């Protein structure tokens, strides 16, 4: 059994490295939030009136950073862990064929995820630890009353982050790992994407809850006007979380709809990329979810703040200004790190599947240029789908907030936050095309650990 587990980890090293990298990025993002909380605790222990006031201000900012980090981590980490298991369904079926009980399969999968998460989060914490105080000092430098703090990130906070990230990874995989033990042996004959596609009620419930919270906050803007302006920083992320939660149900339809605009006969590589992205629903949905988070999260926050600024200017005649760079990076640096690494990891994790698809294209007479063009087009299709969904998030967020603020400040105009969304989309496109067209390493063919030799 031990030999089987270790051989499987070695054979699927590309998939597990993706999960490890995302765990490391999650730990780095969580370390920033932990550092802010620890710095606040040190101020409270000081006991002075000024220290308590500064601790209160830091707690407010830290709460926002924690919420944004949790939103990004919940969406991205859950998708990556599920994809990690889904890509190995055939292997789990082979395990059962050689006599491994289904309960043992479930236990082994959870242990594997726990070990990978523990290693990844430890690496992420060790890399981030020296930079957390410096990053906090830079991020807080633009906040009145929070400059020149004694920023902290102790080993105790590091251990707490590692334990928390490992626990989140394992908990987010409980259902998927249970289903891994129930994989039928017939899955050996199927591609991973041909497995039963589930549209669970939990996703819809999570989406409805997030959208309900966003609606309540928007109604608060209608009742209190600009006095409740701080809520605009949370409405957009909650709407983004709602769209991502129901994404696996919606993304395939959006992808097929907009790609159908381009005639398939115009380009063989486009035809192959469109069909590959449409067939690989689980893989595509995981990537699009991370990309939507990358584009919509900064865009929606910028949109909400700009819409609030329009209402403030109409009310007081003074400009609210924009979000300064330091505060923007402090709030969104960690969440964007997780979402970008998550998007790239989902592409790299499916490297073996993409190599097999490329080999089939070449065997059918396609040139290497068509293979590369197909990979690039598939990345563009995924980013394009994410842009469309993110645009819907920005429209819903900005228009809803403008209508709510317009109750007390008539004439408030919505701002879409394109100044943040467009650069995020461009960076995502470049990263995805680079990850999708990355040439595979030359390696010796490996015998599957559970497949008998002939």
Topology:
Blueprint: H1 2-11, H2 13-46, H3 49-86, H4 89-97, H5 102-128, H6 132-140, H7 155-172, H8 174-180, H9 201-224, H10 232-245, H11 247-259, H12 268-279, H13 281-316, H14 325-349, H15 351-363, H16 368-405, H17 418-436
Overview in brief:
The chain is mainly α. The protein contains 17 helices and no strands.
Description:
By secondary structure, the chain is an all-alpha fold. It has helices at residues 2-11, 13-46, 49-86, 89-97, 102-128, 132-140, 155-172, 174-180, 201-224, 232-245, 247-259, 268-279, 281-316, 325-349, 351-363, 368-405, 418-436. Helix 2 (13-46) packs across helix 7, helix 13 (281-316) packs antiparallel against helix 14 (325-349) and helix 13 (281-316) runs antiparallel to helix 17 (418-436).
Q: Using DSSP, what is the number of strands?
A: 0
Q: Tell me, briefly, the overall form.
A: globular
Number of helices: 17
As a percent range, the share of helical residues equals: over 70%
Structural class computed from helices and strand pairing? mainly alpha
Major β-sheet annotation: none
List SSEs in N-to-C order.
HHHHHHHHHHHHHHHHH
What percentage of amino acids are in beta strands?
A: under 5%
C-alpha Rg, in Å?
Answer: 23 Å
Distance separating the two termini: 22 Å
- The mean pLDDT is 82
Low-confidence stretches: 441-454
Notable characteristics:
454 residues; mainly alpha; 17 helices; disordered C terminus
